[in-house]
Each structure stands twice: as structure tokens, then as C-alpha cells.
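User: Run a structure prediction on this.
Assistant: Running it now.
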Amino acid sequence: MWDLKPRLEGRIVTLEPLALEHRDAIVEAARAQEAWEWWSADMSTPAAVDAWLQSSLEASERGERSPFATLDTTSGQAIGSTSFMTVHPEHAALEIGWTWLSPAVWNSGANVEAKLLMLRHAFAVLGCQRVDFWTHEQNERSRRALAALPAQFEGIIREHRILWDGSRRSSAVYSILDSEWSAVEANLETRLRAH
């Protein structure tokens, strides 16, 4: 049985299973609307964030997704969220997604360290052979971040999802294989030393 709800602690961020106790800090972190341009759910109001939080907790209970609160390690305050999802132990594969951070911590190393912690757990603890990332085709910021891991671009899945506002989403798909993990880990560690 895979442990998909660990507490993963780093120097900049700590990932812990998302819980109702994170609600107020999550609402505060979600206030900056520039974070939501390409998001799959409505996060425009505290009520919308509450609906996302409830949906995330229900998905966790059903075993469909393992959402984390991304905490600032120093303050303990939630600054965003991320998830393990699309889990296939029989194929030694999963996806990391539903990732967002408050713009206040963009370029702080928070995303780099969160990815390092999650990928290390996926490859070194769970024994994954593959980790996927899917992002909106037009989300250039996310695509640059994935390419910088580096994750390999695999292609575009066309109009496979209808978003909360009724628009259609095509997704850019990236992946990292276990044979690539040591180079990715070294790159992320080097990047973290700059923060």
C-alpha cells in the first residue's frame, strides 16, 4: 500500500495533508487573482475556495487524490496546495497536479522545493517508474516551470476537459521517468541552493 499522505518537510516549504484547519490561511493565500488565470476550479471568492477545499477533502476520502497544504516552513502558514493524483500503483505511476502557490512566494524556491520533496517521495519511497504533470496548454508559466525541472514534454491532449467557466481545456503533458530522476534531483538541489 502506497503512503500518499506523508508529511514532507523542507527548508523553505513543508507539505502536509490538507485539512480543514488550513482553511483560513488557504483563503488568504488564494486572494491574489493572478494565480487563477489557468486554474481548473473557481477560486475567485472565499466561498469558491471553501468549495474547492471541501471537494479536495472529499476526493482524498475517496482515495482519488492526496491533496497537501503547502506551508511556509518558518511561519507554518499555508501558502498554496499541491496533490498526488491519478495514482496507478500497478504501473508504478502517478501524477503531481492541482498545484498552486500564492504569487507572494513565486520565485522564492517554494515550488522548486515542493517538487523536489514530492518527486523524491514518488521515486525513492514509492518506487515510481513515471511521474506525470498536466497543465493548461496556454499556461506558459507552468510549462516553463515543468521544462526547468526538467520534465519531458510529451504532447498536447486536445479539449479533454470542460472548466468551471464552461471553457474547453487542452493540456500539455510532461513526465519524468525513474531513469531520469537522478539528473532531475541534482538539478533541483542546485536550483534550491540559490534560494
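The longest strand covers residues 78-88.
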